[in-house]
Task: inverse folding
């Protein structure tokens, strides 16, 4: 088997296994807020209830909640995606089910603000 040059990393897809996403807007309140930084896993397994990155047909990339697996109009596997805040944003209620290949990543964690720490709180250093 040929050896890879030192430092070269092989990924199974065009994306590295992990990446970052920044939340914009209020469609995912109260779970996520505008400005939250998320760690996402590309090609991660989507399960009902998971937060995912999805690309809608108009090209919009958004964070939504995967509710259930469905079939797209073309008969391909798809996901029904909803906002946690039903009064804001666009989701499957407006655009229909999103093809499975248009759900490139699953949210792994919120990195900022640090989970469990309210916004605006700061740790004071002594002295």
Result:
């Amino acid at each position: 088997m040929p050896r890879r040059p030192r430092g070269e990393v092989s990924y199974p897809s065009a994306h590295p296994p992990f990446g970052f996403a920044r939340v914009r807007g209020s469609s995912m309140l109260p779970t996520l807020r505008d400005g939250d930084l998320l760690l996402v896993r590309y090609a991660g397994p989507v399960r009902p209830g998971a937060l995912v990155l999805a690309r809608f047909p108009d090209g919009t990339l958004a964070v939504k909640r995967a509710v259930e697996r469905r079939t797209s109009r073309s008969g391909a596997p798809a996901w029904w995606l909803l906002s946690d805040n039903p009064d804001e944003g666009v989701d499957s209620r407006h655009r229909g089910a999103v093809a499975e290949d248009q759900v490139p990543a699953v949210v792994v964690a919120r990195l900022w603000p640090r989970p469990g720490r309210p916004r605006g709180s700061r740790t004071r250093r002594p002295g």
Q: What stands out?
A: Residues 55 and 99 are 9 Å apart (CA to CA).
